[in-house]
Design goal:
The chain has 194 residues and is of the alpha+beta class. 19% of the residues lie in helices and 30% in strands.
């Protein structure tokens, strides 16, 4: 018997206020909850993009950043990033770097389903090729960071709403994603400082 996965619910100040089953939090009244986004780069500075699987509840079939997910209750965010990259993309990573510690967003799909997340953003650099899990990922594509960022900023690339908001903030860190300076861990919201 498997245990249902829970997400961490947070208040507007990023404090943990409880947990809820993951299957129940994405609807018309989605509560603010803890999540993460990650951007995987190779040593040439290209970013790995993923097209979300067709059966995803939120933004199915939409292109987005490399991997998103939710930490389990009491799981450090960097470990959640590592776990999900392994599960979704077959990537084994040694290090993840915190880039945007307090990113948050709320987005509404055409069908009324809401995504509402406190979603720190991470950078990961890999040597290996991805092996997408079809339960999570419909397709992958590598793209030079500048081409991708320009395309998102100029509206030439259609991406998830969180990715569209994150890219300009990442661009502010500099033109070379491999040289971005990581943010201090103590800038994470309280609920993420496990």
């Amino acid at each position: 018997m498997t245990t249902e996965e829970h997400v961490v619910l947070v208040d507007g100040d990023g404090n943990r206020i409880g947990t809820a089953p993951k299957t129940l939090v994405h609807g018309a009244e989605t509560p603010l909850h803890l999540a993460f986004s990650s951007y995987v780069f190779n040593h040439d500075g290209s970013v790995l993009l993923t097209r979300r699987a067709d059966h995803k509840i939120t933004w199915p079939s939409v292109w987005t950043n490399s991997c998103c997910g939710h930490p389990l209750p009491d799981e450090p965010l960097d470990q959640a990033v590592t776990r999900r990259l392994s599960y979704e993309l077959g990537l084994s990573v040694e290090r993840v770097d915190l880039m945007l510690p307090s990113f948050a967003y709320r987005a509404v799909m055409a069908n009324g389903v809401v995504e509402h997340e406190l979603c720190p953003v991470y950078r990961v650099v890999v040597d290996a090729r991805e092996a997408p899990n079809p339960d999570e990922v419909g397709e992958t594509r590598w793209m030079p960071w500048k081409e991708f960022a320009d395309g998102v900023r100029n509206g030439l690339l259609s991406v998830s709403p969180w990715c569209r908001e994150q890219v300009p903030l990442l661009e502010e860190l500099g033109s070379d994603p491999l040289s971005w300076e990581p943010a201090p861990r103590d800038e994470l919201p309280p609920a993420a400082r496990v």
